[in-house]
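Researcher: Next entry in the queue.
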Amino acid sequence: MIAIDQGGGNRRPARPTSRIHFRNSSPIFASSAPRFIMADMETKPFRGLYRTVSWSYVTDGTMSFQVPEAEYRQFGHEPDYGKLPWKEDYDAAIATSLRDGD
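Model: Structure for this entry, 102 residues:
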């Protein structure tokens, strides 16, 4: 194997910049970080919107997600799982209300 000299045979290896930034940066303490206190906020219960074969879709007004049927029944979300509309019926009702301008 032939070594090819690319010039600068006496160059120093590059310094790792992580040490430079670590040395020159000031530490961040937990006391200086903003605090988010949710004690005054009232939590809303999750409410079912619709169901599929083995899942339900729940929301609390700010976030929504799917929940398995067993968990929905276990946590006692309202309305009862059997009274939730099917996804197709829910989508049709939403489309009708958007068309009617409700």
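Model: Residues 46-102 form one domain.
Researcher: Noted, moving on.
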